[in-house]
Amino acid sequence: MSLENRCVLIRTKKIGGCAVLHTPRKVIQRICLLANKLRFHIFFKKRPRPGEYCNSKFIRVDTRAVQPAETRPYLAIVRCGRSHCLIDDCSERNFDIALNCYAEPEGVRSGDYEYLYVGGINKYKAAVQFISKAHLRRYRGFIFLDDDIEITNSRLSQFLAYCSTHGFGLAQPSLTHDSHFSHEHLLNASSRGWRFVPMVEVMCPYFSSSALGKAIHTFDLSYSTWGLDFVWPKLFEFRPVVVDEFSVRHVRGTAESAFYEYMRQIGVSPQRDLAQLKNISIGKVR
To answer: Which of 273, 211, 262, 275 lies closest to 241, judged by CA?
Structure first.
């Protein structure tokens, strides 16, 4: 190896008898992540103040649904900034909406949702603080939507009823072919029906109430949410399902998302979260 190349590489510890080499840039990135992680644990916002919208370690609940005479059977939780892509098409929905905001929503009226809570580090760490045993008793099924998942109220109502009718524990709608996607098996493959898949993604999973009761303790395992979708199938005797009869459009790709810059600011590597959870043993998650 030339002197020039030797100057570009830094030798680190041996793993499995092989020397692991890192470029100075990667070493600097790792140091920055560690510094940001330390700053996060010391200084990160504990809970949003009244009227404040931000990410935080703990949520602030602003609105709780009043128990009506007839309860809608499903709950859609939408993690969102100023807006989201759940489209109100003026249909009668069979689900309540819980907005989990990290920025002040624009143009949202009180009648557009039943619950509103602010903060949390991510959608799932916030949800584990919000969802109670009363919610698990009250609702038959739950769906967790990112704010860039596009679907109408009427189609979501139909999807939720379809999942319940077929007895699915863990499922998601298929993705339209103009969606940003990471897993080809989640793209729409038919105009009707459903199929078993290895995993469903964190951006729009459906859980039956009983399945969520078994999975909710895993929601705290990932700061980035990466890797959770590989953990969930290990919890159940049944296989995850993608429903081709219903599709959603994933509007934005990861490169366009401010979420990953936010992850770097709190010292989190999504790739490291994924690597740790992808191969986690069943005993550690059950």
So the answer is: 211
In sequence order, what are the beta bridge partners of 117? 61, 100
Counting Cβ atoms within 10 Å, is residue 35 exposed (0-12), middle (13-18) or buried (19+)? exposed
Return the half-sphere exposure (C-beta side, CA atoms, 13 A cut-off) of residue 193: 4
Distance CA 199, CA 234 (A): 10
Structural tokens at position 195: 């199929």
| Eight-state DSSP code of residue 187 | B
Domains of the chain, residue spans: 3-43, 59-285
Whether residue 60 contacts residue 124, with contact meaning beta carbons closer than 8 Å, is answered with no
The C-alpha torsion from 185 through 187 and 191 to 195, rounded to 10°, is 20
Q: Tokens 């903060």 belong to which residue?
A: 119
- Would you put residue 90 in left (φ > 0), alpha (ψ -120 to 50) or beta? left
CA end-to-end distance (rounded Å), the chain: 49
* Residue (of 176, 204, 226) closest to 77 by Cα position: 204
Report the CATH number of the 59-285 domain. 3.90.550
pTM (two decimals): 0.89
pLDDT at 286: 83
Q: How far apart are CA 194 and CA 215, in angstroms?
A: 22
**How many whole angstroms separate alpha carbon 277 and alpha carbon 286?**
13
- Inter-CA distances, 20 with 23, 32, 156, 232, Å: 10, 20, 48, 32
Range in 171-180, 203-212, 277-286 with the lowest mean pLDDT: 277-286
Asked whether residue 218 carries a pLDDT value surpassing 60, the answer given is yes
The per-residue pLDDT for 22 is: 58
d(CA 67, CA 284): 37
- Residue 67 clears pLDDT 70, i.e. is over it: no
- Dist. CA 157–CA 206, nearest whole Å: 12
Q: What pLDDT is stored for residue 271 in this prediction?
A: 93
